[in-house]
Amino acid sequence: MFSEEVNFKLNKVRSFMKDFNLDVAILAKRRNLSWLMGGGDFHVVESFEDAVASMVIGKDDACLITFNNEVDRFYDEEIKGEIKSIVKYWYENDIKQKAVEYAESVGKRVCADFYHEKVAYAEPQFSELRISLTPWEIERYKQLGNTAGNLLTKLCQDIKRGMTENEAAGLFLKEFSSRGVRLPVVLIASDERVYKYRHPLPKDRRMEKQVAVSIVAEKWGLHASMTRIIHFGAPSTKLENKHVAVTKVDAALILSTRPGSLASDIFKRGLEAYNEVGYPDEWRKHHQGGWAGYLPREIIVTQNTRKEVGRSQAFAWNPTITGTKSEDTILIFEEPNIITENKSWPSMTVEVDGWRIERPAILVK
Question: Average pLDDT for residues 155-173, to the nearest whole number?
């Protein structure tokens, strides 16, 4: 018997199949298997998006196709329920090809989350299935957000002047990993690098004055993003003003993200906020974020994203103004709920459109 969560998601896949007159669906991306199986890990190499297994879902049953050196771990630790399997030796042909062959024996009309000449490509539709979170996923997301927010706060407080960016990154990776949380994204820039790069990979540069830290924390397949700014000694008035400005843009984006809101309208409100704070063109230098979940960004929002926000969905907005950035992960209920905040981080109250919200200030050390 599968868990209630897995059965619920299998039914979502089958409803999609019925709506599009499909017989079989193949899931081979690690994000989709993690989603389906309630947070399981179906990969070996961190940088690969393909799982080392495929799930073939028919109208009445499902089958796991994997290798002989993976199957025991999956059944012992990752699969929430009983499922039949086809196990191939590690040296045999590609698992995805075996999945297509098996799917064709089950039904004529096949879709998959990867490109193949014999099947319909359906990853955009699977992304839509993932975006609306179940109660089980919401609880896991809250746990992840709480862990990420608390731990990043502690680690940023531990950063010292003179450490290298790589030393700080190593500290982050060690501490998050010890709690079962991966960091697929670690961006650290210090001093002039903060002003030059939007995606600064850490280097052997010693941190002297200003540090910008952006991470994506991942557990159970879910991703939580956040950014924090640190300064050794009092920051300049110019930097302080820039940071106040970027938090106002962030606040405008967050507070506009409510059930029924149109993503393009939220984006438009963000552009208005950039104008209001005196930086009308900064939005052109970096994307502004969007839906989050089983990818750091399931959908990056632009002025052309004609999609409504729904309840129980995750977002991470990340506006930037050269030299600073504001970012947290939120869950959408009747109103936004920030899951990565930590009350011990210094904050400022930002008022936008008659609403007030707390946003992270610069941590001065």
Answer: 97
